[in-house]
Amino acid sequence: MTRLSLEMTVTAIAAELPGAAELFRQSSINFCCGGNIVLSEAALRAGLLPDALLADLQALADAAGRDAPEATPALIDHILTRYHETHRTELEWLIPLAQKVERVHGDHDEAPLGLTDALIALHDDLDAHMAKEEAVLFPLMRQGANPMIVHPIAQMRHEHEDTARLLAGVEHAAHGLALPEGACGSWTALYTGLRKFSEDLVAHMHLENAVLFARFDTARA
Q1: Cβ 188 vs Cβ 1: under 8 Å
Q2: What's the angle, vertex CA 162, arms to CA 44 and CA 156, rounded to 5?
Q3: Fewer Cβ atoms within 10 Å of its own Cβ: the N or the C terminal residue of the chain?
């Protein structure tokens, strides 16, 4: 179970805790450009009680990964179908939709300029990362504990940090996914899809870091 504190930064919590980004959006807390502040300060700026916000976030942390399959092979299968396949499918239509919105609304003050490039960078990073998991790490995990598994796990954890930074770049380019008044259907669909994709990606990385990878921590001994 992840224990949170008021001294953690908003950016770190949004990148690692499923559901935190949406809670921050609802609370008008900027976790993208202005998120490098501790949670207690962010709560006070938003007119919230720090302890109440911490309790809401802790409830999310307590629930995260609770429904993960118990058996490791089943958990790997779940990650492959629920997240790997889903990310690939969604990016196939999110990228061209971002291109369309940038092209049509590029002169709008709140246009998500640079979003397409940010999504392509995230796509390339994520595709390479998932391919390595599928070809190397997951087959090793299906074989059981192995002292050598600590090395690919450490690499995947490091790559998750890179992926989180790229996801923050997507949020930044899309202005925190805040739709302007009168946004067209394409713009609305883009941000709705990006919100779901972002939440999925954070949940995916949390499930691997906190649940799947943690099952092999004993291999470090």
Answers
A1: no
A2: 120
A3: C
User: Of 64 and 114, which is predicted with more confidence?
Assistant: 114
Give the span between the Cα atoms of 33 and 171, in whole angstroms: 9
> At which residue do the structure tokens 């590029």 appear?
106
Cβ neighbours for 133, distance < 8 A, ≥ 6 positions apart: 84, 156
* Pairwise CA distance, residues 85 & 122, whole Å: 15
Q: Is the pLDDT of residue 16 over 90?
A: no
pTM for the whole structure: 0.86
Structure tokens at 26: 């609802």
Contact of 95 with 155, CB cutoff 8 Å: no
According to the model, what pLDDT value does residue 35 have? 61
